[in-house]
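Predict both folds.
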Amino acid sequence: MDAEPNDRKIGKLCEYALRNPLRIPKITSNLEQRCFKDLRNENFGCVKAVLCIYRKLLSSCKEQMPLFASCLLGIIRALLEQTRQDEMRILGCNALVCFMGEHCHISMDFDSLPRSYQKIYEAWH
């Protein structure tokens, strides 16, 4: 999938998630599984589409963020660990910045993230 993600379809999915917040864990679990599969298969266009969906979820479903934060953080970690794919690591960094920008009130559960990502960064150099 090299085409750009379909903004209209992403918008509809996010509207559905906003109207049906109890479905968000299932939606994001499927997105997470799809992203990991596409990373393994080096289908980076689909990975980019998943990140576009999460970016839209972050901006449109702020109240429901606790329902999908752990899946998104798992994807971010996987992207940052892609040692052979700089583009994927950059996408992971951008996703982390987007996540932190939308939710600067990160709870104690996320306090270990900066240390983890610093270790990954130091391992690159």
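Second protein follows, with its predicted structure tokens after the sequence.
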Amino acid sequence: MNVDRIFGKVANQLDNAYSITAFARAHKDLVRALIRLYILEKPSPGTLAPSNQFPTLTLETLERHGHTMLEDSSDAYGKVLVRIPFFFLNIYNTVIGEVRNTLGSAFLHDWGEGREWRFFERIIAEYEALRTNFLINGDQKEATLRNIYKGAFGRAETLDITVKLKGLSVVKAEHRFPQMGGLSADGQERDWRSGDVVVKNADGASFAD
């Protein structure tokens, strides 16, 4: 079974039916805002216009015209969550390139190949950095663990801890960190105590995250 061919055929049919690519090209700032609302799972009023460039295109209007889906929020009465189907998300991202690197290939596409565990470790690390950087780009300086990790289980006093946010980047350790000294990545020493890196450990390390 040629997964790429099947994926491409379905994506093309949806694109032709809903003009996904054409819409994304004409509304790049709006599509970026939609993707951020989706990834951050941010409860919003249905009357919200995600982009100031398109004030008449509210979430309710976008759903009505088939550009996204909305779900009632269970945490915030009267507000909704943006839900973007994977095929739409892949096409949107192809146009605007908001999600890159390994994570960018995770929207169903390319999943026909065998994937080793380190592929999923890299996706998790990139997703962690992406979500945090989205929060910072939205002018948030701090957040509770509950708001960063939606749906997380734990004691209320733990989930309500407030942490300061820093821009994150993903680095791959060149050795078994922390068993073999400090963090060396990309041919140079990195200060892992700075709190601005997500470490993807060397393959075969005891702590492979």
